[in-house]
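in:
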């Protein structure tokens, strides 16, 4: 179930990078829907890892985790109508243990930000999360932007499972084992992001439950993709600062109060 690319720098630290949507072009998704493509062909698209250029810190290993479920994507949660969270988390723990990692960070943007946040909260071996424009309500996102392909994720209608996954971050079961209490979270979002309100509401919900939670808000009205693409350098700098346990210095980053920062943007 766990598959991806490991960049091994012989480090006791690991940065896990969850992948965003956009790995698979729409015309290939159409072929998947019509069963006109092979799994091997689709696998090649998943191996075109985003954020691959961020893996420059020699002080940490990098694991680029694929989201090849439901013949397409699964938000690291679902495989053709089956909830895979528990099994995926178990295999993730095994990977970390087998490689004897002492410190683990999760990172990702959009769909990858959702995966980074979910397993950062769920897995006790993960201490730090950097979640960039995540979908807090993933099914809401699917219904709005990928409804054409929804039958891949849910071959049979299952309103119970849809509701469970859409509200996963508010499910008490996610927090029952207390694994989240030592987790440090950083969110990056923007006023123009599609789920800005959902991220802000979740930040208010989670801040008292975890070790600490910080949200960085881009001041512009840039939408979901531009707010990331236009600020790649800032995102990379923050991730590397977290990997090295350093503070980030950026002239455009303004602290408004504890746990709340504004990134000035055009």
């Amino acid at each position: 179930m766990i598959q991806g690319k490991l960049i091994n720098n012989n480090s006791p630290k690991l940065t896990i990078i969850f992948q965003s949507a956009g790995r698979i072009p729409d015309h290939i998704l159409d072929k998947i829907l019509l069963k006109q493509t092979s799994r091997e062909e689709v696998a090649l698209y998943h191996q075109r890892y985003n954020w691959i250029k961020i893996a420059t810190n020699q002080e940490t290993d990098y694991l680029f985790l694929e989201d090849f479920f439901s013949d397409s994507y699964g938000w690291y949660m679902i495989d053709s109508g089956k909830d895979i969270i528990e099994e995926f988390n178990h295999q993730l723990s095994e990977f970390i243990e087998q490689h004897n990692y002492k410190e683990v960070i999760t990172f990702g943007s959009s769909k990858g930000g959702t995966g980074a946040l979910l397993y950062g909260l769920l897995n006790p071996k993960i201490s730090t999360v950097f979640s960039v424009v995540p979908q807090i309500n993933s099914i809401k996102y699917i219904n709005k932007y990928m409804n054409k392909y929804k039958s891949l994720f849910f071959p049979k209608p299952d309103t119970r499972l849809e509701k469970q996954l859409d509200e996963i971050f508010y499910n008490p079961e996610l927090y029952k084992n207390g694994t989240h209490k030592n987790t440090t979270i950083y969110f990056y979002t923007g006023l123009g992001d599609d789920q800005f309100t959902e991220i802000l509401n979740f930040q208010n919900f989670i801040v008292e439950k975890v070790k600490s939670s910080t949200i960085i808000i881009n001041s512009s009205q840039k939408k979901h993709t531009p707010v990331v693409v236009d600020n790649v350098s800032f995102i990379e700098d923050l991730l590397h600062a977290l990997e090295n346990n350093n503070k980030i210095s950026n002239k455009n980053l303004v602290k408004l109060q504890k746990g709340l920062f504004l990134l000035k943007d055009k």
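note: The chain has one domain: 4-263.
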